[in-house]
Amino acid sequence: VNVAERIDYVFKVVVIGDSAVGKTQILSRFAKNEFCFDSKSTIGVEFQTRTVTISGKLIKAQIWDTAGQERYRAVTSAYYRGALGAMVVYDITKRQSFDHVARWIEELRAHADTSIVIMLIGNKADLLDRRAVRTEDAVEFAEDQGLFFSETSALTGENVETAFFKILQQIHSVV
Ligand code: GDP
Ligand code: MG
Description:
- By secondary structure, the protein is of the alpha/beta class.
- The chain has helices spanning about 5, 25-30, 75-80, 95-100, 100-110, 135-145, 160-175; strands at about 10-15, 45-55, 55-65, 85-90, 115-125, 150.
- A six-stranded mixed sheet has the order 2-3-1-4-5-6, with helices on both faces.
- Helix 6 links the parallel strand 5 (about 115-125) and strand 6.
- The model has no long low-confidence stretch (mean pLDDT about 90).
- The structure holds guanosine-5'-diphosphate and magnesium ion (MG).
- The site of guanosine-5'-diphosphate has 18 residues, from helix 2.
- It comes from Stylosanthes scabra.
- Belongs to the small GTPase superfamily. Rab family.
């Protein structure tokens, strides 16, 4: 049986956040269970897919990656179009990337559908000795803004799968 014919839903999820926080690696970890040590910064908008089963439904997650547009805040509204979920990623070792999260959320509120499910991700959780953002601060911010929250490591894979399943489950429960 051709899996494509049995897909129940395609869920578009966008990944945003400052450059170098690990967005592309999180995607690769989820889509291919890979971590690439010499990854080049992404060029051109791309997405990766993975099909998962949630509550007996076959769901194709289409995860979009920004393409070095982060620095210029040039992510276009086309990128957000049709997105049902968003992961806003910061690096737990880079305070500035967390301080910029509010701006990324503003971008989302301006361009994305109001019902979009948003998850805040503190990545590079393997670098505990270089932590610059306390978990409690992120939890508080997420609660204030009504976001789901998780700390992940694309390097070790910690929580990456769980975070994607959480957002996909949440989207599924509202479609
Ligand atoms: P992007 O610009 O947000 O797409 O970031 P990348 O995915 O290209 O990652 C930027 C850098 O951070 C690369 O050198 C990655 O190897 C590294 N990196 C990404 N995720 C992790 C992680 O979870 N732990 C550690 N230690 N390094 C990571
Ligand atoms: Mg990238």
